[in-house]
Amino acid sequence: MKHSAAEILREYGPFPGAKTVAGVSFDGKNVWFASGDRLNAFDPESGQALRSIDVAAHAGTAYDGRHFFQLAKDRIQKIDPDTGEVLSTIPAPGNGGDSGLTWAEGTLWVGQHRERKIHQIDPETGAILRTIESNRFVTGVTWVDGELWHATWEGDESDLRRVDPRTGKVLEKLDMPAGMGVSGLESDGGDRLFCGSGNAGVVRAVRRPK
């Protein structure tokens, strides 16, 4: 297993009216994050806050190229990004104990926090297609270039880990500095991993190793 310190490229925020950062997503241009009662967008180049959508947003956020998917307690909402309308909902597999959300391979991947699991689910029904076990709390999940990464946060320790999507075996680990927790994780499709920070209210960009 490769093991190194996380290289933090930049910190964004805090943002007006957003006391917490839960789920994080990327729409190909802007970063979006969940802050409890709304989804917020900012430009990752300038750091400027852009817009927000008033919608329940308690944990993970995902984007499929057309819609947002947002964890709201025990449900996953499908949201129109233009109007903010909730188009449909499905049950979340963790029944409210869910903590990360991403889109890949035409399906949703959901972290189940204290159960230390990642579920691949059907985005139409919520049916669980497969489950990967972790040995740490799961607080964010993302796919990039065929790599599955998830965030952990227990006590004052947090890391980002690349895992085998078949077995859950840890292949690579990036340790965050002490006291820097990660809540929510998303890739920009390149060398940046965007990390939520819980009540610290910021988003951090971490370099993804080549």
UniProtKB/TrEMBL annotation:
Domain of life: Bacteria
InterPro entries cross-referenced by the UniProt entry: PQQ_rpt_dom, WD40/YVTN_repeat-like_dom_sf
Protein name per its UniProtKB record: PQQ-binding-like beta-propeller repeat protein
Organism: Mesorhizobium salmacidum
Domain named Pyrrolo-quinoline quinone repeat: residues: 73-177
Gene3D superfamilies assigned: YVTN repeat-like/Quinoprotein amine dehydrogenase
SUPFAM superfamilies, alphabetized: Calcium-dependent phosphotriesterase
One Pfam family per UniProt: PQQ_2
